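Minutes, project check-in
Item: structure for the 296-residue chain
Input as provided by the requester:
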Amino acid sequence: IPTSSIANAEVIYSAPARYQVKGQVINLLLKHNTGFHSLQGEFFGGYTHQNRNSYTERASLLFTNKKWEIDMLYSFGHGKRYYYYENEFAHTLTDGTSYAFSTHSDNIKRHLNHNIRLGINYHLAKDHQLSFAYTSQLNNTRGTSEDDGDFTSLLRIHAKSQFHNFRLDYSTPFGFSAGAEYTYYNSPDEQWLKSSLYDEIYDITSQQRIDKWHAYLKQEHDLGKDWGLNYGINYTTSRDKSSQENNNKSSDGNTIQTEDQMCFYTLTINSLSSQVQWLMSVIPALWEAEAADHEV
């Protein structure tokens, strides 16, 4: 998003319940269009050299008119990284015997990273808006680590991850808003290890998948004299499945964890100045979690 489109930035160290998130928040407030057509774009290219070359290309586009605001962003990062380590170890056993050895390690990583965002705001009327946002991150990394010295080893890693987030929000002129959000995350990894310390080769495949749904309803009232009252309900349900398979079957297994949470909140706001607000909230919540381990 071009910096000229940002009206203000809020840094909140403990976000109130109306933001539907926990912890710290950086909230970017965009400038609203005033009825005229506008088209803005930005292109960026970056180059980094740290023993190997890495590149970044990024493009963004923002279109606005009386009814629509559409922003698009795409960035692509790719390249190689090289690391070299010298290691010295000393192990002492319970009987006092000490063993010292040293190795040096060569590490090479190749990465491909994609970042995508699409945001659409449609103004039905004044302060009456329907919004949709899609965010995605796609990462693909291949790496090799080779150790030589008092012992030798070769490790190959292939890690991929996908993150997708879809969000739909609806807001009205009388302070009522509602929305829903879905998040998908999948991260399959493969590792292959051969070492002079072991008598066999380890071939390990692991994967984590997360599915998360979130929905909310909220109402905001302006009570006058810099006072406000907000209340609403948030509901979140998620499923986290992790698995691992080993060629020697010594550490295979699946873990599934589910979580459901419903939160009701009431929030009183008093604006002490244009930059300072005083907040008081009451947040009763219902929470349930379940985890299960399954051996393969």
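Outcome recorded: The chain has a mean pLDDT of 83.
No further action items on this chain.
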